[in-house]
Specification:
The protein has about 220 residues and is an alpha+beta fold. It has five helices and eight strands. The longest helix is centred in the first third of the chain and has 16 residues, at about 50-65.
Length: about 220
């Protein structure tokens, strides 16, 4: 039976996070590298593509025997979940089984109650030329630590692959665990982008999935 499982949860920033937005029309004196923001609210957001791509790249380091030059050549457990444009013997591509939605701030009111009105900060950094000792200052905008973003991931159940649900969710959860010890966005080696996942759960939103399978799925997610 055609079914969909919705996975929800919270992604929280534990340090300042920079996922870059456009500075094409920045005024003189503006921040050199702004973060991407929700155009409706002007609050920082996390593109679903950023989370999905980072998790996939981390999984490739673990599951690929040798790091593949192209994502289409990743290990089968990765391409099965994230998709591949590489055609099989029947000339078919492998569609992604997950849809990762953009994520928006869900605790801005709580942040304001703590006396913080702006959800981003500007970090001033300098790079110094070793040859000339000339400083090159720059301003990098970051989403502040403590922001919580609502997660929404849809997992599509393949009608003839129900037995693969648990393994797929384990791979996804593995990637999330790895991300908690890595970083999301840019400049991770300088302390940016540490995140944590919480309140992860799964519900069937289309069709039916055996209750015992869903119990196992939620046990896997609870272990993140």
């Amino acid at each position: 039976m055609y079914s969909k499982i919705q996975i929800t949860g919270v992604l929280e920033t534990k340090t300042g996070m920079h996922i870059g937005g456009s500075s094409a029309f920045a005024a003189i004196g503006a921040v050199d590298s702004p973060v991407i923001k929700d155009i409706r609210t002007n609050k920082p957001m996390v593109p679903g593509s950023s989370l999905k791509g980072k998790i996939r790249s981390l999984l490739a380091r673990k599951y690929d025997k040798e790091l593949a030059d192209k994502p289409d050549d990743d290990a089968k457990c990765i391409t099965r979940l994230f998709g591949s444009a590489k055609k099989d013997g029947e000339g078919k591509v492998t569609p992604s089984r997950i849809i990762v939605s953009d994520m928006f701030v869900i605790n801005s009111e709580d942040i304001k109650k703590r006396g913080v009105d702006i959800l981003t900060e500007v970090k001033f950094e300098n790079s110094i030329s070793r040859a000339t000792a000339v400083a090159n200052p720059r301003q990098i905008e970051r989403a502040i630590n403590g922001l919580k973003f609502g997660m929404d991931i849809i997992y599509e159940v393949m009608p003839d692959k129900v037995d693969e649900i648990i393994d797929d969710i384990k791979v996804l959860a593995d990637g999330m665990k790895m991300l908690e010890y890595d970083y999301l966005g840019g400049n991770g080696s300088r302390g940016y982008g540490k995140v944590k996942f919480s309140d992860m759960k799964a519900d069937v939103v289309v069709g039916k999935v055996d209750e015992s399978i869903m119990q196992q799925v939620n046990e896997v997610l609870a272990d993140i």
